[in-house]
Amino acid sequence: MNIELRALVDKVGLTTLEMERTRFEFCFACASRINHLLELDEALSAYQAFKSYLEGKLIQVEFENLQESILSIANKHQGSKSLDGTKHSAVSATYALANAINGNAVAAAEYAAYSKAYGYGGYAVSDVESYQEEYSAQVAILTELLAQKNSL
């Protein structure tokens, strides 16, 4: 659990309507850090659609449909077919994306960190140190987005 991120999210009111754009930008940044771990074509397409939404190329109704469909995609993910034992990494990456698209910043960040740690190998998920680099990066990303927002 990224305690520093959770505190920052609470402090700035990231879940409020006025912070929606920043929240989605943060969510997309978290998903972008692990998008290479996505395996399902539907998830890869959803990632691209999310990017299009942030670029203003996807209308709200299409985005709302995407929010519904990505949850279904994540819930039916069977895991990776790879032999390296990283199937949970791909599943977690898909859940990170689903939460990101739905604006659940903390869940998106935590699934992304878990996915990245699992990508190191199954042993890493129980090692707190495996998460620290990603946790620090997430706090830095949100801090930068907030600084950009405040400078406008």
List keywords for this structure.
mainly alpha; 7 helices
Largest sheet features? none
Low-confidence region ranges: none
**Contiguous helical run count:** 7
Percent of residues in helices: over 70%
Shape: globular
Q: SSE order in H/E notation?
A: HHHHHHH
Domain unit count: 1
Structural class: mainly alpha
Number of strands: 0
Approximate strand percentage:
under 5%
Mean pLDDT: 89
Estimated radius of gyration? 15 Å
Distance between the termini: 31 Å
Describe the overall structure.
With 152 residues, the protein is mainly alpha-helical. The chain has one domain. It contains seven helices and no strands. Helix 2 (20-34) packs antiparallel against helix 5 (87-101), helix 5 packs antiparallel against helix 6 (105-120) and helix 6 packs antiparallel against helix 7. It is globular, with a radius of gyration of 15 Å. The N and C termini lie far apart (31 Å).
A few lines on this structure:
The chain is mainly α. Helix content is 72%, strand content 0%.
